Amino acid sequence: MDPKPAKYAPKSDADILDIVTRHPFAWIVSAAGGFGATQLPVRPYMEDGRLTGLIGHFGRNNPQIEHLRDQPRALLLLTGPHGYISPSWLTDRTQAPTWNYASIAFDCDIRLIEDSAGIEALLRDLIDTMEADRDNAWSLDNMGERAARLAQGVVGFHARIIDVQAAFKMGQDEAAQEYGEILTALDRAGETDLAAAMRRQNPDR
After folding, report:
1. For the chain, what is the domain count?
2. Mean of the per-residue pLDDT values of the chain
């Protein structure tokens, strides 16, 4: 994977976990049998307070599953807050446009999960997380016996993280005036996620 400049490194492991939990829709990219790519939600797998893996599930008819049986290695790609930065926001209109973003590439070993108990645990974890704090929250138990039939249609996976390449390009290149003007414009436009991410990555500005 292409290493990013050190100035774009996340401030802490918590920044990486934050992307996984708040922006969980990931690309699963594999190379065995020709490139395969599936976009699906993932959840963090924690050990001793550390992010060591990602878990999720494929539809059972997805051909990428067989490729991963043959070669259980994949990249899991996530994108966090991002957006176009317009020179129209700046006093100095000779500045060039750019794009601020947070992105993470996890190099992983993939273990498929096909037992009914393991699949049910994955589904419950994802559903319960997505339904948390909702009024009249839904649960897998609401499906009754249909839940078991649903589980037969998926194959779970545990992606053990081998390496991480993360880039949080959040205004580190900008001079103080331009940085402040960008934040003002983002706040005015309601781009709160991107503005908050910039502030997290530049705590002293």
Report:
1. 1
2. 95
Burial of residue 5 (CB within 10 Å: 0-12, 13-18, 19+) is exposed
Structural domain contains residue 183? no
**What is the SS3 string spanning 112-156?**
EECCHHHHHHHHHHHHHHHHCCCCCCCCHHHHCCHHHHHHCCEEE
pLDDT tens digit sequence for 28-49: 999 988 899 999 999 999 999 9
117 in any annotated domain: yes
Beta sheet of 25-30, edge-to-edge order: 36-41, 25-30, 73-85, 98-113, 154-169, 50-59, 43-47
Is position 203 within any domain?
Answer: no
> At 59, which CATH number?
2.30.110.10
pLDDT level of residue 150 (50, 70, 90 thresholds)? confident
**Residue 19 lies inside a defined structural domain of this protein:** yes
Q: How many helices (H) and strands (E) does the chain have?
A: 6, 7
